[in-house]
């Protein structure tokens, strides 16, 4: 287990699990969100994201990669030797997403160094860009997607 991708719905605990696993393996932990988000919540185009991901994955011989971003699967799974799917119940996942959003909105912590991106109470709980709303909308879809992928012998 040298190149691991941890996947799951927002709020499933990917970041926490990935950091702990990376520490145990002595490997760097790479976070897809850190590669994706630009300052002021800017979003890269696919070419920019794919290039950043490729550079990050090639920078070391082992890593734990935290995150989904389905369109990046051909790049990240080309060299991934293990995929870990965190598949917790909807209630647990939603609880964890709400708890994290609340904690982050209170702390005002910058999520990814150099971006200035922080989760505010308004953005987390009263916005169409809410991570909680995202969790509600994507939980079932992600579960079906990963069930299908697991069933696929390729």
TrEMBL record:
InterPro entries: Cytidylate_Kinase-2 (IPR052922), P-loop_NTPase (IPR027417). It comes from the Bacteria. Gene3D superfamilies: P-loop containing nucleotide triphosphate hydrolases (3.40.50.300). Coiled coil: none annotated. PANTHER family: TOXIN, YALI0E33011P. This is Topology modulation protein. It comes from Vibrio aerogenes CECT 7868.
